[in-house]
Specification:
- With 252 residues, this protein is an all-alpha fold.
- It is 80% helix and 0% strand.
- The protein is built from eight helices and no strands.
- The protein has helices spanning 7-30, 37-89, 95-117, 121-148, 152-176, 181-200, 212-228, 240-251.
- It is rod-shaped.
- It starts with 6 loop residues before the first helix and ends with a helix.
Length: 252
């Protein structure tokens, strides 16, 4: 996971590994006689099947990464909506509880923005601890007001707070949901075999030719890892809805 969270490092290591695989194939080829016509036909079938399998694996894995990325974006929007709705429902509580709840929600929104933007693991742990603390205070405020004055309106405020807490849990689960390590290992294995076959079938040692496939596959792996890594990649979730919510809460 350490490498998968650093897409650029993954790109470099993948390219070197696949280039080495192609080079090994060339060395094996140089120690054998020329292909017969029958062997050439069988070799073409094997290479075609291997490259097709590799292409399908890359395609399916890319689809998995983009699906998870879209889910994170959707959950960010839902989280902002849940916080904004609960902020509006806070007016249904007594004035003192309403003011405290609104102050806590503004602070909570800032923490959620920091969750999306930070890359530092120490800061992330600090954010997690502060989030849990404020969530406890939010629920205590709403539950205390509902117990003192039970009514349909206080129940509505309690329901909204439940959505706020649940949305954070769904977001965290989506950020933990990554492409399985087994899928990565399978792709690396098939890619290495494909490049061994590539080098094995070459007639000369032209450097340009046998780096094309390793480079293309490495770029594909880089893009998949970049999309799948919530914090380590270039393509990241921008909390635009939470930013907009924070600005609107400041204006109120």
């Amino acid at each position: 996971m350490l490498i998968l969270n650093r897409p650029l490092l993954l790109f470099i290591l993948t390219f070197l590994l696949l280039w080495l695989s192609a080079w090994i194939g060339m060395i094996l080829r140089s120690r054998r006689n020329q292909f017969s016509e029958h062997m050439r036909s069988d070799y073409s079938v094997i290479v075609g099947a291997t490259l097709t399998l590799l292409g399908l694996l890359i395609g399916f894995t890319f689809s998995m990464a983009t699906t998870r990325f879209d889910m994170r974006k959707t959950l960010e929007e839902e989280e902002a909506n849940a916080i904004g709705t609960e902020y509006a429902r806070s007016d249904l509580l007594p004035a003192q509880d309403s003011a405290r709840l609104q102050a806590l929600l503004r602070q909570y929104t800032g923490l959620r923005i920091r969750f999306y933007t930070t890359r530092d693991q120490t800061d992330l742990q600090r954010i997690g601890a502060e989030t849990s603390k404020i969530q406890s205070q939010l629920w205590t405020t709403v539950a205390g007001a509902a117990k003192l004055q039970p009514s349909p309106l206080s129940a509505l405020a309690s329901s909204g707070m439940n959505d706020v807490l649940n949305s954070q849990g769904y977001t965290q689960a989506a950020w933990w949901n990554r492409i399985p390590i087994a899928a990565w290992l399978l792709m690396f294995l098939i890619a290495a075999l494909a490049n061994v076959l590539l080098g094995y079938g070459m007639h000369d040692k032209s450097t340009v030719l046998y780096v094309i496939l390793p480079l293309a596959v490495s770029i594909s792996f880089f893009l998949i890892a970049d999309i799948d890594s919530p914090r380590g990649g270039v393509i990241r979730i921008q909390p635009q809805n939470l930013y907009a919510l924070a600005e609107s809460l400041k204006a109120q």
